[in-house]
Amino acid sequence: MPPANVTKKSSATKAVRKTAKSQAETDDIEEWKRAKQLLKPKDQLELNELELKETIGKQLVSTNNRLPDSLIEFSYAQGTFIPIPSPGNVVVSFEQQGTLLHKDSEEARQQMLEMGIDPLTYQTSVETIYEPEAEAEVPSETAEPSVAPEGEGDTTEGGTQTEEGKEEEEGAEGTAEKPPEEKPEEEDEEGEGETVIKATVKPAAKGGRPRKLTNQFNFCERAALTYNNPVRSQETQTIPPPMANFSANVLQWVIYDAYQEDFAAQQLEKELERERKEKEKMSIGKPSQPKKAAMGRAQLSEAVQGRVLECWRVLERMINQNTFNDIAKDYRYWDDPSDEYRDEEGTLLPLWKFTYDKTKKHTVTDMEWNPFYYDLFAVCFGFLDYMKPLQAGAVCLFTLKNPSFPDYICVTDSGVMCVDTHAKYPYMVVIGLYDGSVEVWNVHATCTMPAYRSNSVTNKHRGIVWEVKWAPDLPDGELNFFSVAADGKINNWVLMQNELAVTTIITLFLDKDPASGPDGTLLRAIACASCVKLHPDKPLVYLVGTEEGHIYKCSTAYSSTYLMTYYAHTMPVCRIDFNRYNTDIFISCSADWRIKIWEDERQEPLFVFDVGDRVGDVKWAPYSSTVFAAVTAEGRVYVFDLNVNKYKPICVQAIVSRRKNKVTRISFNPKLPILIVGDDKGCVTTLKLSPNLRIMCKAPKKQQHLDQWTLQCMKLDKLLALVREPVTLTLPEDTAGSEDS
Amino acid sequence: MAEGEPKEKTEDTKKVVHTYPLIRHSDMPEETKIESMELVVTACEKHSSNNEAAARMIKEEMDKKFGPPFHVVVGEGFGFEISYECSNLLYMFFGGNLAICIWKC
């Protein structure tokens, strides 16, 4: 090996080269590193170009000159530092423990003895097998080569196997050869002086049979047995959930049919619902509820009672017809024959008298014929003598077919002052009470309680309700009516689902200046309404009569002003009635003894009649445009026909005794030539008009084609033309001249 | 029916197509029925062209809401004979041409 000069700079150059190399490597891969400054050890020498180029020789030697020569170690046992042997020049680079043993080594010898082989004989026997080799190596100390070639080619296991096989052979051989060879062996041993071997040989010689080596892979594991827990089986069974089967077939037509069917059912349902609603509306809320509540036996007994009642009613009518047979015939057929001989005068024939025992002390405050059943009429029982108030009141519906007892009796807790029957639903009866409340009765459903009742505290008039009138139905079919009362208010009531909704249309004020109270507050005088009449043609317009004697023409569209004010009477207006043929004409009556006929938009009345007593009621006849009837407090009925006599009534007849009774109301039957007159003893008298009182128009010869209606209108127009004052009044020429003045 | 179903009527006088959900047979409690029906409507409207997806959605939702195992069939034409756990069956039509059968077993 050539000698090398190791300089101090070698390590430095190495480092530089290394960094340069790594730099080249990372050049393309890790470019980002380039920007970094290279880290150098601090003590690195800075070399110039020349120094770097300097060649440094290196010398290799067989001895490690860096080896430390005096290593020591502290020994705790001796308490001193002791030198440790030098590690030498050998550097172990690889070391592996083999399984092969040298034949002559201590361990091999031990092993052989354990197997019961005499190492010496083993040597010779091997020599005999491998003679050529053995001879060459015998001179050398051990029989090493004999084992080595065997072990070299085989794995450890294979080695052991072959060994074992050989051992067996050798064992057999050994037993055979032992006796002769024992001696020389012992001699050899003695000669060599190895006591250890001696000791080990003995047992092997004794046992004779070689002991087998334990196979480290053939082992038995010790295990402990613990108690096993006893196994027990337990079962439980639940009830399976209920199952059911279902099957169907889905086809397009099945789906279509199902939809059709369902839709039809829905439509039907809707139809029924609507019908039910309609019915409910007719029966109006409350009456249907008690019906529902009464179930089972009660319902049954009610039904039975109802049928029995029906039978009794028929029977009652039959008896009445028998009892009042002559009256019934008169009512139907009798006309006063004397009329033919009397010009321009007629008579009234009294027929039945209708009374109800419980209301004999009451005054008949209002009467109205049913618009649907010509023989049925409603009578209100209240009182007009405020000094003797009565506790209860009633509305009775009488029929001409049964004069002895009312068909329907609706008892109220206050005097009934007015009534009106709905034109479309003839069983809906609205009444106004003395205490200011209004009630709607559905006599068809029940007569025990009102279908609607205004709240007696918050929702009522603060005065006597003088008149109620059904208004045309609202667009959505709700029933509504107007009421006028002494508090000067006109209310519109709408029948909602189960209550009355009220709207005040107008509060009537007098035209006077507000009166100042003691504390300076100004009070506007309120006009006390006493009667109202809706215009038959114009739904917005209505006339109100007041206790001050004025008649206001109002519209529901205006709540503060009057369309017109008629200063009609000096006493309370009792009744206003529109003429059926010419709706511009209306009649009014008052307690100031006068009956006046008015034309719309004309301040002055067309006709004025003084009948000499308080006029309680006046009505136009339905059959003629010029006939009207009035009743006075002294018990007389006046019938006028303007076409016959413009100044005097054509019939004046006392109905009740003058001293005891007063007649209060009158009403024409819309179909029959019959009047009903109510008095203050709770009695209603039926009167038949004689032929002279109901003269129909005769068509002139030239105008035969005209119907009765036109003729009646013409008749009235002709009459009115006579009394109307011209628009511009031209005074007739004063023929007498100025001499008088 | 009590529910306010959306109704679609073609004005054609002859052919009226109804698409509202129509329950043909069900023994579910009322609330469950309504809920399931709404679920079916939602699923079928969401997957109007994919009955399988609709069925899957219904099944998964039903499993989640009322506990598995539910089975759902959505289709325009099929026949079935099933055993089901009582009060867990809904057989209905929807959209005019779909039949939906839901049951638990």
Written account of the structure:
The complex is a heterodimer of chains A (741) and B (105). Chain A has 741 residues and is an alpha+beta fold. Among the domains of chain A are: 10-83, no CATH class; 101-151 and 199-207, no CATH class; 269-323 and 356-514 and 523-567, 7 Propeller (Methylamine Dehydrogenase, Chain H). Helices cover 27% and strands 25% of the residues of chain A. In chain A, the strands form nine sheets. Chain A has a four-stranded antiparallel β-sheet, covered by helices on one side. In chain A, a hairpin with a 4-residue loop joins β1 (72-75) and β2. In chain A, α3 packs parallel to α8 and α4 packs across α7 (156-192). Chain A is elongated, with a radius of gyration of 72 Å. Mean pLDDT of chain A is 76; it is low at 1-12, 131-207 and 285-294. The N and C termini of chain B lie far apart (28 Å). In chain B, a hairpin with a 3-residue loop joins β4 and β5 (98-104). Chain B has a single domain (22-104), classed as Protein Inhibitor Of Neuronal Nitric Oxide Synthase. In chain B, 31% of the residues lie in helices and 30% in strands. Chain B is of the alpha+beta class. The model of chain B is unreliable at 1-13 (pLDDT under 50). Chain B has a four-stranded antiparallel β-sheet with strand order 1-4-5-2, covered by helices on one side. The relative contact order of chain B is 0.21. The A-B interface holds A 241-252, 254-256, 258-260, 262-263, 266 and B 1, 16-18, 22, 24-25, 27, 75-86, 89, 91, 93, 96-99, 101, 103, 105. Chain B: One of its GO terms (cellular component) is microtubule. Chain B: This is Dynein light chain. Chain B: Force generating protein of respiratory cilia. Produces force towards the minus ends of microtubules. Dynein has ATPase activity. Chain B: Keywords: Cell projection, Cilium, Cytoplasm, Cytoskeleton, Dynein, Microtubule, Motor protein. Chain B: Consists of at least two heavy chains and a number of intermediate and light chains.
